[in-house]
Specification:
Strands 5-6-7-8-9-10 form a six-stranded parallel β-sheet. Strands 1-11-12-13-14 form a five-stranded antiparallel β-sheet, covered by helices on one side. About 30% of the residues lie in helices and about 20% in strands. The protein is built from eleven helices and 14 strands. The longest helix has 15 residues. The protein binds zinc ion.
Length: about 350
């Protein structure tokens, strides 16, 4: 039996408020616990987006009532909320800035809008950028100009990991995360589901931002694992009906599959258990200034081999891009603040057991 610390996922789309048919604070935190994750940081592109005190209160009220694991909530950078976001900072996981198009309405097109957020958001609090390719390079330049840390969400390209490596060597305060789907799936990987093949060619299921890349990109990420600070899921649930529709939204669920997929990669010799602990506990805790979770750990049966199946998942979205994958390493038990929260496939803590880690400051 392998004992791990309670894992932290700093990139989760809860979908509440506004889209609870996809997921809510109850189902996402059940899924997280089942995946060995005891703390999630929630993204702000909900409906409405989280960009001021009243929307932050709305999300935190649902979380307080329903969450079963610990959490914090990001505030989103909008065109005119830099002052408000800075004031709210201590109550948030950090500031999320969307420099490229994705799901939701928070994109900042004009760099003059970036300026006010970089100037005003407290330097001790993290800014997370959704920024791909050249806008990532622009984001790193902002980190250098304002001499403050930025964290680049979900990098996926060879050019991105190489530029971050060079920026780190220059002493620029940039960190980054990679998601399992960008380490394991290419743009041509078939994606099946429990109920069979890929209707309409299944292209909708492959929709994710950043898009799945090439084998060359994947190889560059693996070859530069030392540049990658965090493994995060970008858990972004949409229902299978939505994914198979004519207008499929981008995003994959991920909190229940990240650990078995990485443990399997460790078993294959592609990384070590310590690499996983550094990137799913030590570094996220440091980068996002997260508190200890006392008496919290995850027990894993390292030798258990099984197949990933939607039927075993707790997420409301009802599918996984890793359906049918053979993995090695099963989460057996999760203890959160002294209580067994998950054991042998069952969630054992009530709604509301989760704590807002920013309210304990
Ligand atoms: Zn995301």
């Amino acid at each position: 039996m392998l004992k791990l610390p309670g894992l932290i996922d700093p990139h989760v789309h809860v979908r509440e408020p506004g889209q609870t048919h996809k997921e809510d604070w109850d189902t996402v935190t059940q899924a997280a616990l089942a995946g060995g994750i005891t703390m999630i940081l929630a993204m702000p592109n909900t409906k409405p987006p989280i960009f001021d005190a009243s929307t932050l209160d709305l999300a935190l009220a649902s979380a307080k009532e329903k969450a079963r694991c610990d959490y914090a909530q990001f505030v989103g950078a909008g065109p005119d909320n830099a002052h408000i976001a800075a004031e709210l900072a201590p109550r948030t996981a950090g500031l999320k800035m969307y420099l490229d198009s994705t799901f939701g309405e928070l994109r900042l097109d004009d760099m003059s809008l970036w300026l006010s957020h970089f100037k005003k958001f407290p330097k001790g609090m993290p800014i997370v950028l959704h920024s791909e390719s050249r806008s990532m390079a622009a984001g790193i330049l902002f980190a250098a100009i304002y001499d403050r840390p930025v964290h680049i969400a979900h990098i996926s390209l060879k050019e991105e990991v190489l530029l971050i490596k060079a920026a780190k060597e220059k002493g620029i305060k940039v960190t980054c995360e990679v998601c399992p789907h960008h380490l394991l799936l290419t743009s041509s990987s078939p994606i099946f589901s429990e109920n069979g093949g890929e209707p309409g060619g299944g292209w909708g299921r492959r929709e994710v931002r950043p898009r799945l890349a090439t084998q060359e990109d994947i190889n560059a990420l693996w070859a530069n694992l030392d540049v990658i600070d965090i493994f995060a899921t970008d858990h972004a649930p949409h229902t299978l009906e939505e994914k198979d529709s004519d207008n499929p939204p981008p995003g994959f669920p991920g909190v229940e599959t990240i650990l078995p997929l990485l443990l399997t990669a460790a078993d294959d010799g592609r990384l070590t258990i310590d690499d996983i602990i550094q990137r799913m506990y030590v570094n996220p805790k440091k980068i996002f200034h997260l508190p200890d979770q006392p008496e919290t750990w995850v027990e894993v049966d390292e030798s258990a081999k099984y197949e990933i199946k939607t039927a075993d998942m707790h997420s409301r979205c009802g599918w996984t891009p890793f359906e049918g994958w053979q993995v090695k390493g099963r989460v057996k038990r999760v203890v959160l603040r002294g209580q067994t929260a998950f054991a042998d496939g069952k969630i054992l803590v009530e709604q509301g057991y989760g704590q807002n880690v920013r309210s304990r400051l």
